[in-house]
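Researcher: Let's do a round of design. I'm pasting the structure tokens now; please hold your answer until I've finished.
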């Protein structure tokens, strides 16, 4: 696995004037299991480098182009040849968009400073972009991570999906506390932000009063001139990092009195690793460096003086504090390098993807269902395509896998049922497409083992299924349909049924009702506008894939229809799928349905709450006045001015006659029904509901059929 690390522009990756980022990178790379596969990119004019696997990028600045952009451009040119698996960007969120647009690598961003003060992550919009497009975001403290999420409405679960806290590190050495000297240290920039003025005022008083104690200062500052002098105080200026941590081995008290919100506090961490008694301000991420530091209640020189004098006067307590801090230190280079490697291993073994925070983020969706290609358009107007159209119209990238077509075309002596070929194609499609969401629709031939394999490979992959067939206990094919639903339910993040799941005699976890979706490109008729040739339309079949009637087969719907017809021969029925009249499909169906005023929505089996075949869409969506059994519960969604519910055949007969006579009212109700169905039950809305529940998106959108 090839890894590229990009340092901030002008970050000195040199021991002569190394910045905090350079130290962190060099020290953790040394102990990484991937160190032989890591290249560090930067830009510095120093010839001596911290590590040999460093590439200095020479800039070719364009006209009116910033140095930073030119710097990233040069990095991208190198990447085009190297083609890294992972790119790790340190402390420059404003580089991310430029890199992501040109690279297919997994991209990680490390924050070493307050995200709210950095170009590219100041605004909520910028941070949402980073969350949506990066594969991981790593913060140097919990404080920094909390800052990043200010103003973003996300759950703890969403935060933990792709963000990590990796503290800075220090070397670990054995400390002989008997060799500790009466020395007080200050390490850092000699400015007011770091509190050097407070330290200086306090330390001069300490040295005047306690003659046996000394003070040392490591650091410089060209922008501020804060001068403190004392015969027992030595200012070393800037020194190599190795020299500083070596000196800390004999320091007794280390003071970190920053005014600004330190994102973490490397100075405090290194003092802890050398067994110093630490006095610190309670700012930013500083408290995360050690659990036993003395915290300054008030950030002023008097408070510092009091805390230092307390430690000077109480040698036993000072030694106890030193040992506690030293024993508590755990952020060694090895420990932190291993933590980073574990994150890298996730990239190696899995495909990390962040659960979109907002419903309008683009997803890659692998939709596996029967698209009926082998039927040459006869079954074009089906639910598979309606749902698929919804995903596409929402702006998502949808890959279609027509499972039954593949099975039908793949049968041979080696794979007599074609299912092995299907599952191989399914898994290969996953790896080539890398979907965020897999949607299965009646994909019975997809093995549970295939889903289990992908779920184990990609812990963040979401899988759902939708199911349209009746599951009434006394209905047709109950045992078979129940088995089909439950077969892969353990791998499902959500299941969607055109039946109310609560009305079933068995439980399906994370299951939801969805209406049969309408589609603006399918439901194009407006029968309510016309005086049609027929009064009532009804169509059934003995199976959509068969297409023709089975000899000797019948069901209870035929008896119901025949009884209805006998009541009055003046009602002009247009009926298909019974009495030796073959079912109709495709364009023929649209043509026939266009000739009727009203339609009967009658599904197989005993009525079950909310269950209907997709016939209800074709009737209501095309502007036919539609009749449905009241036991389906559709009155929960439609009132009497939108849909006609009947109690029994006698009630249905009376209502058909009523609206046959009252054509004006028939047209009004049919129009209302179509308008409402197309507005609230359309494929875009149903597709969004499937995404929301499968991806665990907390959407503010309200769905007519769903109550939170």
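Researcher: That's everything. Go ahead.
Model: Designed sequence:
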């Amino acid at each position: 696995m090839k890894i590229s690390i990009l340092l901030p522009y002008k970050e000195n990756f040199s021991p002569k004037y190394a910045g905090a980022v350079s130290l962190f990178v060099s020290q953790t790379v040394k102990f990484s299991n991937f160190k032989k596969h890591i290249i560090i990119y930067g830009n510095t004019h120093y010839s001596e480098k911290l590590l040999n696997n460093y590439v200095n990028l020479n800039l070719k600045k364009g006209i009116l182009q910033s140095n930073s952009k030119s710097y990233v451009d040069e990095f991208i040119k190198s990447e085009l040849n190297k083609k890294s698996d992972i790119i790790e960007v340190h402390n420059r969120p404003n580089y991310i968009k430029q890199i992501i647009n040109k690279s297919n690598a997994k991209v990680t961003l490390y924050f070493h400073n307050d995200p709210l003060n950095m170009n590219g992550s100041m605004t909520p919009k910028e941070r949402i972009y980073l969350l949506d497009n990066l594969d991981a975001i790593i913060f140097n403290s919990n404080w920094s991570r909390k800052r990043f999420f200010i103003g973003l409405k996300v759950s703890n679960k969403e935060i933990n999906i792709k963000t990590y806290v990796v503290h800075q590190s220090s070397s670990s050495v054995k400390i002989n506390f008997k060799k500790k000297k009466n020395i007080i240290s200050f390490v850092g920039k000699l400015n007011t932000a770091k509190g050097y003025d407070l330290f200086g005022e306090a330390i001069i008083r300490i040295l005047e009063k306690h003659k046996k104690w000394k003070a040392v200062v490591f650091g410089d500052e060209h922008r501020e001139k804060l001068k403190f002098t004392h015969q027992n105080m030595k200012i070393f200026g800037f020194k190599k990092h190795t020299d500083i941590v070596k000196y800390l081995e004999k320091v007794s008290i280390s003071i970190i009195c920053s005014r600004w919100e330190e994102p973490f506090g490397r100075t405090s961490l290194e003092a802890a690793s050398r067994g110093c008694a630490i006095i610190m301000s309670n700012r930013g991420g500083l408290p995360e460096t050690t659990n036993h530091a003395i915290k300054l209640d008030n950030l002023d020189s008097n408070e510092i003086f009091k805390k230092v004098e307390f430690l000077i006067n109480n040698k036993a307590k000072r030694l106890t504090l030193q040992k506690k801090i030293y024993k508590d230190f755990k952020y060694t280079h090895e420990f932190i390098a291993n933590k980073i490697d574990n994150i890298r291993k996730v990239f190696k073994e899995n495909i990390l993807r962040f659960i979109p925070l907002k419903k309008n983020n683009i997803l890659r969706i692998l939709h596996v269902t029967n698209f009926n290609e082998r039927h040459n358009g006869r079954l074009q107007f089906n639910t598979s395509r309606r749902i698929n159209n919804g995903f596409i119209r929402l702006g998502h990238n949808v890959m279609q896998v027509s499972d039954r077509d593949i099975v039908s075309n793949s049968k041979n002596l080696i794979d007599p049922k074609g299912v092995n070929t299907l599952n191989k194609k399914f898994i290969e499609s996953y790896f080539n497409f890398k979907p965020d969401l897999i949607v299965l629709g009646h994909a019975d031939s997809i093995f549970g083992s295939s889903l289990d394999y992908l779920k184990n490979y990609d812990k963040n992959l979401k899988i759902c299924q939708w199911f349209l067939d009746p599951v009434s206990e006394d209905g047709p094919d109950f045992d078979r349909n129940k088995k089909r639903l439950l077969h892969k339910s353990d791998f499902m993040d959500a299941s969607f049924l055109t039946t109310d799941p609560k009305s079933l005699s068995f439980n399906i976890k994370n299951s939801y009702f969805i209406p049969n979706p309408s589609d603006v490109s399918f439901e194009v008729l407006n029968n309510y506008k016309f005086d049609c040739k027929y009064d009532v339309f009804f169509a059934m079949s003995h199976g959509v894939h068969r297409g023709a009637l089975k000899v000797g087969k019948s069901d209870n719907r035929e008896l119901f229809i025949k009884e209805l017809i006998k009541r009055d021969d003046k009602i002009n029925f247009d009926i298909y799928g019974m009495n030796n009249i073959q079912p109709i499909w495709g364009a023929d169906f649209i043509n026939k349905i266009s000739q009727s005023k009203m339609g009967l929505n009658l599904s197989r089996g005993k009525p079950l709450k909310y269950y209907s075949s997709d016939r209800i869409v074709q009737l209501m969506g095309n502007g036919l006045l539609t009749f449905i059994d009241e036991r389906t519960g559709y009155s929960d969604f439609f009132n009497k001015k939108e849909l006609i519910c009947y109690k029994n055949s006698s009630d249905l007969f009376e209502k058909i006659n009523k609206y046959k006579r009252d054509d004006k009212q028939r047209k009004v109700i049919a129009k209302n029904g179509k308008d409402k169905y197309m507005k609230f039950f359309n494929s875009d809305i149903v597709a969004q509901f499937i995404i929301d529940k499968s991806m665990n998106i907390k959407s503010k959108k309200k769905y007519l059929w769903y109550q939170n």
